[in-house]
């Protein structure tokens, strides 16, 4: 057998095995614990960036810092956070025990709040790029209102 044919055959077999094993892994999906960890991490990054904006609108305003934080919030809001609330993640532990109420998984209001959160996050990013500190402060309040609404209805109290 020609050297090139042997290499091509070996490559084809390797790719076939890789594709088959990747498909099997993709079908299994991440475990609930991993989804909870990712969810908790995403919301920590959201909180950090919200805090950065709040510090700017209450102190010396730095447009570049606000734009970075607002863009990070919008990116996370539009990243498909809902997929981190998959069946099986209503209880369990990620980095810590989840505080989500089971009602979040069945109540239509949760989806409405999530949609509003995305809308307010995108508007915050748009206003941040314009550099109007007063408008950003008002919009940050609207964004935080969506966070509060979800926490009030769908987060277990300590």
Write a short abstract of this structure.
With 158 residues, the chain is mainly α.
How is this structure best described in words?
It is a single chain. The chain is mainly alpha-helical and about 160 residues long. It folds into 2 domains: about 1-30; about 30-155, Cytochrome c/b562 (Four Helix Bundle (Hemerythrin (Met), subunit A)). Helices cover about 70% and strands about 0% of the residues. The protein contains 5 helices and no strands. The chain has helices spanning about 5-30, 30-60, 65-75, 110-130, 135-155. The chain is elongated, with a radius of gyration of 22 Å. The model is unreliable at about 5-15 and about 20-25 (pLDDT under 50).
Largest sheet: none
Total number of distinct structural domains: 2
- Give the C-level CATH assignment of the largest domain: Mainly Alpha
Order of helices and strands: HHHHH
Q: What assembly state would you assign to the polypeptide chains in this entry?
A: single chain
What characteristic shape results from the CA principal axes? elongated
Assign the structural class, choosing from mainly alpha, mainly beta, alpha/beta, alpha+beta, or little secondary structure: mainly alpha
Low-confidence residue ranges: 7-15, 20-26
CATH architecture of the largest domain: Up-down Bundle
- Provide the residue-averaged pLDDT: 87
| Structure annotation, total helices | 5
In CATH terms, what is the fold-level topology of the largest domain? Four Helix Bundle (Hemerythrin (Met), subunit A)
| Name of the CATH homologous superfamily of the largest domain | Cytochrome c/b562
